[in-house]
Amino acid sequence: MKKFFGKIKAWFVRHKPTKRRLIQVYAALLYNANIKGFFNGQIYKGNTKKLCVPGLNCYSCPGAVGACPLGSLQNALSASGTRTPAYIFGIIILFGLLLGRTICGFLCPIGLGQELLYKIKTPKLKKSKVTRVLSYLKYVLLVALVVIVPLVFAVPGFCEYICPAGTFEGGVGLLSNSENEGLLAILGPLFTWKFMLLVLIVVASIFIFRAFCRFLCPLGALYGFFCRIAMLGVKIDKNKCTDCGLCIGVCKMDTKRVGDHECIQCGACISVCPAKAISWKGSNLFVRNNDTDAPVSQEIKPLTGMVKPAETSENTTTEVRDD
């Protein structure tokens, strides 16, 4: 009996959530703390809705207590005319300077949802030159739908035609409530398109790590510009680095080097570095020591020779636990 309970305890120890996962869950709950909205089907419009949360979270979600920075930016540009929407630009710059894409790795509910979908046991599509090229699509969407369409046509292009957060949290979240049955009659081809796109993204996320974040999310593209100068994130000591390539090999994003614009600052690379060259920048302010996102897999071994990270990223399949 003692052995039986010992096995149960060991299972829970192996599967307990990491600190990063807990932070992701807490952030999602905090963004959507208006619990009564899920019961009455009404959008919260209190004073906190004037403030932006860091991650992607639809304003129209019944539980949302804050505004989405991406939606706010598009709406501000649509209504700006000849005026510069200084408030929303200031908020995004502040988030970027403080956290950069750490927001993607720790504070985005959409990122959390994709990571949970990816845990479903199926064959996975590994990163490659193709996924790396596709990762630049989000920058095209940033310019075209987040900037040009709102300025020229006064329409929040990404929210209107693409955003899966809006479709799921706002659309499905509201329509699933019996109080909003009347809204079903006004649905048209646009919602059908967005719902089909949502389904496609959900299915893709089962086979591709963070498919939406990597290929389609303009907010991640925006925060990517701040990766090098953000106060919090991962950094590499080039004097200690041996170019073994383990950091890029273990990373599931389309990174070329630690801390670049595709890095979501999850910290998984810290624990696999044999030279201890990777650490948290800003750790004295935000985190203690060099706590990593996950324990190191026992199967990880340094690569022989001096291999450049870019060459290793497509051949190394070593992974660490990221739950």
Would you kindly provide a written description of the structure presented here, covering whatever features stand out?
With 323 residues, the protein is an all-alpha fold. The chain folds into two domains: 207 residues, no CATH class; 88 residues, no CATH class. Helix content is 47%, strand content 2%. The protein has 16 helices and two strands. Strands 1-2 form a two-stranded antiparallel ribbon. Helix 7 crosses helix 12. The relative contact order is 0.13. About 10% of the residues have low confidence.
Oligomer type: single chain
The biggest beta sheet reads: 2 strands, antiparallel
* Structural class determined from secondary elements: mainly alpha
The number of distinct structural domains comes to 2
Residue runs with pLDDT of under 50 for 5 or more positions = 289-319
Percentage of residues in helical conformation? 40-55%
Form type: globular
Discrete helix count: 16
Strand line-up across the major sheet: 1-2
Along the chain, the helix and strand elements come as HHHHHHHHHHHHHHEHEH
